[in-house]
Amino acid sequence: MKAGIVLFPGINRERDMAIALERTSGHAPRMVWHTETDLAGLDLLVLPGGFSYGDYLRCGAMAAQSPVMRAVRDHAARGGYVLGVCNGFQILTEAGLLPGALLRNAGLRFISADCHLRVERADTVFAARYQRGAVFRAPMAHGDGNYFADEETLDRLEDEGLVAFRYATPAGKVLPEANRNGSARNIAGIYAPNLRVLGLMPHPEDLVDPLMGGEDGKPLFEALAAA
Amino acid sequence: MKATVTVMLKPGVLDPQGKAIGHALATLGFAGVGEVRAGKVIELELKESDPARARAVAEEMARKLLANTVIESFRVAVEGA
Amino acid sequence: MSVQPPVDATLARSFGLSAEEYAKVLDILGRPPSLTELGVFSVMWSEHCSYKSSRVFLKQLPTKAPWVIHGPGENAGVVEIGHGLAAVFKVESHNHPSFIEPYQGAATGVGGILRDVFTMGARPIANLNALRFGNPALPVTKRVVDGVVRGIGGYGNCVGVPTVGGEVNFHPAYNGNPLVNAMTVGIAAVDRIFLSAAAGVGNPVVYVGSKTGRDGIHGATMASAEFGKDAEEKRPTVQVGDPFTEKLLIEACLELMATDAIVAIQDMGAAGLTSSSVEMAGKGGVGIDLDLDSVPQRETGMSAYEMMLSESQERMLMVLRPDREDVARAIFEKWELDFAVIGRITDTGRIVVRHLGQVQADIPLAPLADQAPLYHRPTVDAPKPAVLNAARVEDRVGLASALETLLGCPDLCSRAWIWDQYDATVGGQTVKRPGAADAAIVKIEGQAMALALTIDCTPRYCAADAEAGGRQAVAEAWRNLTATGARPLAVTDNMNFGNPEKPEVMGQFAAAIRGMASACEALNFPVVSGNVSLYNETEGRAILPTPVIGGLGVIDDAAQAVGIALRPWLDLVVIGASRGWLGQSLWLREIGGREDGAPPPVDLPAERAAGDFVRAQIAAGAVRACHDVSDGGLLVAVAEMAMAGGTGVRLSTGPRDIPGHAYWFGEDQGRYVLAVAESAALIRAAEAAGIPAVRIGTSGGAGLTLPDGGTISVATLRAAHERFFPEWMGS
């Protein structure tokens, strides 16, 4: 799968993402500048973490209006794969590619700590190398990761099986104490209805090397590399 | 002509910042404060002299960028209108 | 426009220039200065920019080693780390601004030190910080801690440089004067280091970054004055940071640095355009003409004086090759940053500033630098406190209870509440996060090697005996690097002291430097960069002398780095001599209720021998976990290892000739606790090298079994350890 990483001004986890993609696929991803509009030849577009436009106004709001986002929308409409992590997830919701919004963390503080994610379904190209119900660890690093959507939208996400990952205890229990940012129904990541667009807050790309504390995030990228 | 866009979280969306401000006010001894909501005010200097057109363009800006209508509502005031 | 005050000795005094200094200005110019010129002299000759009180002492510090590429005098220190790469690093204080406006003060402190590092061509890869706050019982302390922590996180997280380490202490001496020292480490190619010396008559002087506003005018002189009761009124001079612009500036500068366009580059830090232009031209031995009409401005009607002294953040000054102006402009436009040619390099040896068609300043650069004031301030040595006899200090509480109290006290409790607000993983190279090892370990992307980074000082030791404390701070930094297996390379120092015009304060300064110099010499650990922050006083009361030491080491294989987390069924061995030194220990303060005695001395040859031995053992793969013994002594070190690994320890009985509490909580220096599979071989090797080594216990189980019969579970320890910050800050 040929991957491209979309660079918005203020993004800062593009190198982490490039390392994870290259480590698992053997190919360096293409770096795509936010003013580019021709994404031909790319199968997967990754919107990485960071602070696009300083998170000023609202996280992801200004990046969502970039020229490249029209191309990202077209790519998604054609059934192309899109992965948004952290700020990338925020951009995808601001751009309307995923429902809901990411509000300030419930405690009003930035949270940089490992969390545990329960895999809600494994029959997607992103989660194929995990088992359903499995738990993996991922660092989170965000001030605005509190997933919000109205009840109707949340019910629809559940009914259609579009919840990708939930914050859980290491034993896999979906409990309030595992949900440090206060997300609705412990939601950490969601899919678009075609299961080809994924947004999530934590950073699997920062846990792909035993040296950095583990390889819990590696299966996600291995699955993408194999697809 | 100046337009002012006020952006607030919609009723029903949790506003932890407003909650924290309310808590701090109570700690400072301000009794009788009910719900506190925090929002944003954005002032726009527009090259436009017709208030109706100014309002229309400011509303479009609010819908497209200044507010996220999934979670926020907005109000536009045009100077002298 | 506002009416300009008459430029005379009275105005000069209010700008911080003494009568003698003003007389020197008149002499250099041969006429009274303009307001802008007076501004230039006052900031260049401020304590902050000129080091006029500290220079004579700083010269005593060793600054050379075969691996040192640039020592003090550049924007940051540069040391060679192998594979054609260099580490570029420095620590800098933002103490005064952080008390006035904690969030912005701390945030702009991080921004400033980042610029010092990337200005030299290095990509910043890690931030650390050393913080000192007042009594936690005061509401103001809580406000300052909250703001400073948010500010450091707000800036560092946004620019995408991981904050990987730091330290925090509380003491009432910092009530009105907290310390915020920020350290940045970057990586550059050895042959691509950028310096600030301007060259090339006719070359364009280029301004890039944010626009100039009236921010922080006279910040450099504010950093050189004591706080009075009017600190509140000084609020408007505090600058506001914009980490988003800083991030763009980092990327744009590094992109430009990959070309051959830059002749010289310098960030606009304290005293902004003045110090950057004066230093660049002065170091290059050339002249500089500035046309302020071309300076990108955020506000209208700014005067030359205001533009020259503005401390607006996120700005850089560069001298470019004339044929590369367009290349540079295109890069900065791509990153949506201001780019303006604001002057030329000349051969006049003068700085000439024009604004609105008039010359506002015309100063010869050589005397501005050469005749900068240099003071040999009088010093008085404080009497040395007597050594405390541990046998005369009674233990009324027992080991278990004291341990629980110590682990929960503000100076020793878990800092997780703080570091959870700092992004420690961005960049994907963080091998040991905060708390995992004695030093942070950050791998160099694309290499097997990693940097080990630490920042240390024990102010209570320095207050009791500044020379012993200065020596200890250097030794502890060296020890923390060693405990991970790293080879310590060099030091950056941040000298935080009170009013240098007081002989007792200057005496502390001189003594601390003596102590630091002796340790740097003995440990082959030179000082390559640093910062001096004086006048840390509020209403005449000085802070504890706080010479903060940032240490950098390298470990050739990041996979060999050792952390503190204990696993079950290992032998614990303490390396180095334990004598039960209770003077100035945390046990004495927190349990005994006394802050007295002489601080524990550092025996430099023994320090060196123990450290070299430990490093060799780690390199040989014999060590599973290692932790230096510092605040709280041996039992606290063991408890920290137990909590980190989630396993208990059965401790052996200590020596008979030392009281139990003195043995287990004494703070003798030069010691490490090593966890190994089998202690006999280690102890034999240590004995062969003449280094004290004693087996003190075995890991396993769910709690600590203490030699006096007490037991305490790891869960209880953790609860005590983690309680303070969340309860205090209410979250």
Question: What can you see in these coordinates?
Answer:
The complex is a heterotrimer of chains A (227), B (81) and C (731). Chain A has 227 residues and is an alpha/beta fold. Chain A has helices at residues 14-25, 67-77, 87-94, 151-159, 218-226, and strands spanning 3-7, 30-33, 44-47, 81-85, 101-103, 111-119, 135-142, 146-148, 163-168, 187-191, 197-200. In chain A, helix 1 crosses helix 5 (218-226). The mean pLDDT of chain A is 97. Chain B is built from 2 helices and 3 strands; from the N terminus they run βαβαβ. Chain B has helices at 16-27, 51-66; strands at residues 2-9, 39-45, 72-78. Chain C has 25 helices and 28 strands. The interface between A and C is medium-sized, with 32 and 34 residues.
SS elements, strand count of chain A: 11
CATH superfamily of chain B: Phosphoribosylformylglycinamidine synthase subunit PurS
Number of domains of chain B: 1
Q: Summarize the main sheet of chain A.
A: 9 strands, mixed
The helix/strand series of chain B, from N terminus to C terminus, equals EHEHE
CATH class assignment of chain B: Alpha Beta
What is the global morphology of chain B? elongated
Fraction of residues in helix of chain A: 10-25%
Q: Helices and strands of chain B: which structural class?
A: alpha+beta
Strand content of chain B: 25-35%
CATH topology tier name of chain B = Mth169, Chain: A
Cα Rg of chain A: 16 Å
DSSP strand content of chain A: 15-25%
Give the tally of β-strands of chain B.
3
Low-pLDDT stretches of chain A: none
What is the string of SSEs of chain A from the N terminus onward?
EHEEHEHEEEEHEEEH
| End-to-end gap of chain A | 6 Å
Keywords:
A: 227 residues; alpha/beta; nine-stranded mixed beta sheet; 22% helix; globular; B: 81 residues; alpha+beta; Mth169, Chain: A; three-stranded antiparallel beta sheet; 2 helices; 3 strands; 27% strand
